[in-house]
Amino acid sequence: MSGRHRRGTFTVARKEVITVSTEFGQGESVVAGRTPESAELEREGRLRKQAVERIYQLRRFKLHVVVFALGLPILGAIWVLTEYFEEHTWPDRFASAPDVAGTWDPWFFFVAGIWAIILAVHGLKTYFGPGVGPVGRYIRRPVTDAEINRAMSRMRPR
Q1: CA distance 158 to 156
Q2: 32 φ, ψ to 5°?
Q3: What angle do CA 6, 36, 48 make, to 5 degrees?
Q4: Is a pLDDT exceeding 50 seen at residue 126?
Q5: What values do phi and psi take at 7, rounded to 5?
Q6: How far is 126 from 57, CA to CA, in rounded Å?
Q7: What is the CA radius of gyration of the chain?
Q8: How far from 125 is each of 70, 121, 134, CA to CA, in Å?
Q9: With contact defined as beta carbons under 8 Å apart, do 53 and 130 qualify?
Q10: Long-range pairs for 61-66 at CB < 8 Å and ≥24 separation?
Q11: According to the model, what pLDDT value does residue 114 have?
Q12: Total-model pTM
């Protein structure tokens, strides 16, 4: 149990790097009992998994854009029809005053604006967020014992 430490419900495993010159003949490194080829295959597997997740992120955002582009005109048509048949006239102004003739309720603009803000945040997160790349690797890097100890000391009452 020298390579593992147990603190609460977290288990942290350490990777050990051993240089073996007689077995491989060229001084290649073995990471945690694996050959360099298997370590490279594992790295390629992680990269492939991140690439697949990135493709899914882009697909989700593109689907959101399509739903926004199709849904907003449909929602707008529903709003126009309901307001027109309720007031029997085209709008003179937009306000939340149901008893004034020629006044249309502007709920559609609030829905469209909030949806556009959500779509913009989704786009920023998709194209500039920490999902993939150096920031994503920084966020998902393994937690060290020093970080766990520092967090535990901050949580303890003084």
Answers
A1: 6
A2: 50, 45
A3: 80
A4: yes
A5: -130, 110
A6: 6
A7: 29
A8: 22, 6, 15
A9: no
A10: 61/122, 61/123, 61/126, 61/127, 64/119, 64/122, 65/119, 65/123
A11: 97
A12: 0.56
